[in-house]
Amino acid sequence: MPEEVTKKRICKRCLLFQVPDMAELAKVIRERIDLLPEDEKAPEQVMQDRLSLCKMCDHLNDGTCGLCGCYVELRAAKRHMHCPGVPKKW
What distance in Å separates the CA atoms of residue 9 and residue 75, rounded to the nearest whole number? Predict the structure, then answer.
C-alpha cells in the first residue's frame, strides 16, 4: 500500500508573520520595515489596521497581494502607500 503523501495547507489569507514555513522571508520583511526611516513609516496602529483589512481581502495570498504582488506587511508599513484595490480598502 503506497504511503499517503500529505501536503501542509496554508491559509491563503495568512500573513507572512503568521506562517512558520515562511519564517525566514518574514524575518527579511521585518528587517526591511525596521530599516525604513521613521518619517516614512506608518504609525504601528495604522499598519495593524491596514493589515486587518488585508487579512479580510480575497486578494491576499501567502502574505502577498494578488493585485500588485507586493508583500502586504511591507506595503502597510509605509506611510504614503495605499491599497492597490479599486476601491482602495485603505
Answer: 25
